[in-house]
Protein 1
Amino acid sequence: MMKKRKFLLFSFITILFFFFKIKFFNSLFANFKKRNHTAVLTHDIVLNHLISIDHPEKSERIIELIKLLEKKKLGILIREINLETKEKNWVKTIHSNYHIKSLKSKYPIGEKSSLIAVKGCLQGIDEIMKNRHKNIFCAVRPPGHHALNTGKHEGFCYYNHIAISAKYIQNKYKLRKILIIDWDYHHGNSTELFFYDDPSVLFFSTHDANAYPRTGSPDRTGSGKGEGYNVNIHLPCGTNDKKIISIYDKKLVKKANIFKPDFILISAGFDSRKDDPLGCFDISDKGFKTLTTIALQIAENHCNGRLLSILEGGYNVLGNAKAAVTHIDTLNNFYKNI
Ligand SMILES: [Zn+2]
């Protein structure tokens, strides 16, 4: 009799335990579902930087982007960059002391803005690694993919945010293989330079090799152990959605499937969009939606979705905002459909 009672009590407790356990996991899952897959990191300080009156790399690029995000009810994704993020030693993994010192004295405001961009990138990587978000977009300026170690800004760029991000992921999180996708209209000559002999970084760039800085020849494929890990694809003026999508669909996907990245970084320049005053491509917002989806699919197939996207160029203020918002919306919606 005693045994039967004990058995009944045990069964009752077990059923109760599983009931609450299911409820607990259901509520956790519901919270996960409610969480935003994407965050947009930005900071007001990046608006202070001014190269010169009427310069195309201006604060309105960010102001319009944020305004449009709010208008499209995506303002919920926006978060402020944490200024406490320590970036100093990470900048030095790419840039020389001479370059850093020179920028600080020549262009204190531009240099500070670029440092805020670096902080945003590092914070974004931390948040992705902590599973707070699947992917993150950094709405920052100036751009970074032309920045060298010359002690001055190059092509509106001060520090190479994407190159510093790649080093940070490798050194802090011990993830080795980084895929950098660069769809800015201009070739990311600095990103190419810093990883040219490095097989741990696959640099895939589509650009107009006849435009600034007149680099990006398809013959430049990497050197030493890095041979084959630098992919330059020159596209002519008038390149449209169909043409660029077929390149990403075939060449990028094929390369990425062999490389199997641990993390994906996007140099998201929207001066490759139609109607850009500095570019001559004809890519629509729908085209950027497809390019984003291809990148997300690669991230999902190889690295649990880990993807950080950083704003580079894009000088038609409204066009840049429209393409960036389409990109962000695609980043956020991708996981609702799979
Ligand atoms: Zn550009």
Note: The domain at 39-49+65-336 is CATH 3.40.800.20 (Arginase; Chain A).
Protein 2
Amino acid sequence: MLRGMLHYYSVFLDHQLFDGLNLNTLIRGYKMKYFDIKNTILLIAAIPIALISSSCTSSDDAATTSTTATSTTSDDTTTTGTTTDTQSSVSTPANFATILSETISPTLTPTIKTSVANLDRVLIKYSSSYVHLDNSTYAVGINSTISTYNDVFLKTFQLISQSSEECYRLDSEKHSNWSLDYNTSTMRLELNDTFGYTRDTNSSYLCFTFPSMNTMKATKRYTFSTSNNSYSEDTSFSAKYVEYDTSNAWPELSSSSSAITVYDSGLDVAIPTGMNPSGASMVTNERVAWTSSNADNLSDHNFYGTKLYTDTHSSYQSQIAAAGDNASTATAAATMLSAIKTDLEAVGSSLRYTKAVYTAFRNALLKTTLTGETIVGGSVGQNTAPYVFFTNEKDDSGTMHPFMVIASYSIQDRPNRLLDVTTPPGDGSGGYGESSVTRDALLGSFLYKIPLKDYGEVSTVGDNVMTTDSSGDGQNLADDAGDANYNVYSWASINTVGIAVDGVEIYPLFNNVLLASVEKGEVTQSGIHVGQGMGLHWHGDGHAANGNKMNIYNLRDYVGYDHPPLIGFGNDGVALYGKYEDDYSSMDGFSTEIDDFGGHEHDGYNYHYHAHTMESSVLNALTGYGGSLSYTVAVLMKGAWAGLINDIPEFWNGDKPNGGSGNKYGGHKDYATYTP
Ligand SMILES: [Zn+2]
Ligand SMILES: [Zn+2]
């Protein structure tokens, strides 16, 4: 038992370190290095060093070992990318703004609750209506409509237990950084910024109880102090009931009470077994104060305003003249993509996929906007990835290396539900028990470069050189952990491995002690969390884990299509699609086996990945990592790239793959030379 606990403990320590990488890359590294000439020169200088050093490191051993390691469970570790891609119609998942507007079917039938507990999500009912937020002003009123997801989210509040006080803060489900308070003049209930960027000394929240489950009473109030960045009790507040004021038509605090009952909407967003297979219970650690994490407001970021435009070579500026979904930038991007295709084919090379694939991904990214007050510094309606453009540069020997460049904040467009994570990464301030834990998502700034050219696929794990990082212990998880078991999970970047269709980074399935990160209750029901850099990143596939809910893709995205939806790209340029569903067995490739890298090719689709599930016993046998839990692992990306990366220029930015800084292939004006 003690041994088990120590092991468990070490996981968290290490995961803190692992996610600590975000702190530099997400918050400091990129923002300071972005378009920084000195660092760009260092980066360019580092690339040949990395390639040269690969010939005298363990890459050959890696290939040998991987064959041995994987042969126990599979007879095929190779990939075969030979198909000429002919995809003409490519589907992408509905984003959250679309889902919010959709009618919930079957119709919800809320059930009355007879007790409440920490983290419950509730509807607060008066007469035949529910307490409701206005969608634009966030004013608190009541109405009875619960037909769309938006209706329900604006009426749902999550009860957050206030330690020993036996009362609950009520956070909005849609605007989860804001909580219920009241106007001290009118007494009306109101929503207040309690954990967002604009909270200040006026930020307060009420702490409620539900006596006999037929009244609602605010027993305490807490107010924020900017001097110590925490809440303390407002001792001038005296307990009051919630009453519906019929003359003003609003709920308010009063000495008398209305009959108020609490309901469960029936919308299930519980953490599925696959995201917490050990049934770890909720830790009680303090929430990290994001004020310690260099959080910034949107208007302070590089992608806000014209900085990216002015720093980009004039040949590409027409593609980024406006943020988000825009007809003229779309036309410019289509023109460039056509030129790239023509130029590649003229020299006997090719795009990995048809133009339709890249265009679909670009459109989906640019149409994704933040739907709630869920990101510290974020602004409702902002793009999660404001710019996507195509570059068409040649290296010094005249070889073309076109890229899809994506400017992204790496934020979800929907509620993150980080308060539901049972055992989030800690802040590294000591042992896990003494650490504060990460429950807030900040704005990141990333410029990803996804290669458009088909660089081919690896033959086996280890073919991709990723052995030397800045600290000398490997850019892959295995070497970083000092483990020589090289396989498709451990021969993975210690950092990002791809980007999802919502603009959020995808991390490997494994954490840095070679355990499936979904196994320790570290992620939300959708498979995401933040590290101590407070940047969101995917570790698992919520759709695969919990079925048809409100995930990055859902069953609704399968209807009427020939193949699961396009949900991301690996940094190697290989596309990522949703998992195959048994109810859609006539889809292209349904019967074509997924290889060890999680990919396959079929029916004119060049080699591509699929999210997928596997039994933990298979994972244990393959990797020998010693996990003993029996559960279904919901894999978004395994980790090892099947696409060959060795010939991709400026692939690494230190330990971070494709992390953009001011460079030629990112289209920076000081380095790019393309003229149409
Ligand atoms: Zn993580
Ligand atoms: Zn497929």
Note: The CA atoms of residues 148 and 521 lie 30 Å apart.
